[in-house]
């Protein structure tokens, strides 16, 4: 049973965008970035909340820069503000249509990604999925072991070395602290390590990736990773490309 849970696709609960509010019952509520300019919370769901927060497996809610009144983070807008156009792997949910998930991603992007200092929506959600994958494996194991309280999930994550900042009993969520470096890359880290992990400088967000003619584009594993200007597909080289596949004879 545990193995099947650990290998299953990441589940994602999706509260309706219009109803999304910051939980009031968290164990901690203000995040001080110190000398680091961008910091926030990677919010993960146990799947044991009610309504849209109830689902078979733990999943990611989002990455929230803690701007005022939630923390001291700066708000750095993206290089490209266009809304997401695809459902990213960690937001896939077999119980919900892709249109619903895309609406939720758009909400997360407009509310939180707009201050995350990233290049664009693809950069933001790719980072969210990358950051969420390791702690969600720990939460899968907690769920398989019969844990139900968010405090128990938080304790297991802490034991596994993840920087738990708070947990939310109302919706069954656990928040990990994170910071962004000058290149717009986010890292899960405790507040005491923000400066050493992410530094204290703040630059403009990186230029959005693209696929120039006759040159490699961004790295990719599949065509789904190539949602950038000018990119058509993921080539065998492992990079997005603007060159279409040659027609077969």
TrEMBL record:
Protein name, please? Answer: Uncharacterized protein
Under the heading InterPro entries, the entry gives: RNase_T2-like_sf, RNase_T2_His_AS_2
Q: Name one GO molecular function term.
A: ribonuclease T2 activity
């Amino acid at each position: 049973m545990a193995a099947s849970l650990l290998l299953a696709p990441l589940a994602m609960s999706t509260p309706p965008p219009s109803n999304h509010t910051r939980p009031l019952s968290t164990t901690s509520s203000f995040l001080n970035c110190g000398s680091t300019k961008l910091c926030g919370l990677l919010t993960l769901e146990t799947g044991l909340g009610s309504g849209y927060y109830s689902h078979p497996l733990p999943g990611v809610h989002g990455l929230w820069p803690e701007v005022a009144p939630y923390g001291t983070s700066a708000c750095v807008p993206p290089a490209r503000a266009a809304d997401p156009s695809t459902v990213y792997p960690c937001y896939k949910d077999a119980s919900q249509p892709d249109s619903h998930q895309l609406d939720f991603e758009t909400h997360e992007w407009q509310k939180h990604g707009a201050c995350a200092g990233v290049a664009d929506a693809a950069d933001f959600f790719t980072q969210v999925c990358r950051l969420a994958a390791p702690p969600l494996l720990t939460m899968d194991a907690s769920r398989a072991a019969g844990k139900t309280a968010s405090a128990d999930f938080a304790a297991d994550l802490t034991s596994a070395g993840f920087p738990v900042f708070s947990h939310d009993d109302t919706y069954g969520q656990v928040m990990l602290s994170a910071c962004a470096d000058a290149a717009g890359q986010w890292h899960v880290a405790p507040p005491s390590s923000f400066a050493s992990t992410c530094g204290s400088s703040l630059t403009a967000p990186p230029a959005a990736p693209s696929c120039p003619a006759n040159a490699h584009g961004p790295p990719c594993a599949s065509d789904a990773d190539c949602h950038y200007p000018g990119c058509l597909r993921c080539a065998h080289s492992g990079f997005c490309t603007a060159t279409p596949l040659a027609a077969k004879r």
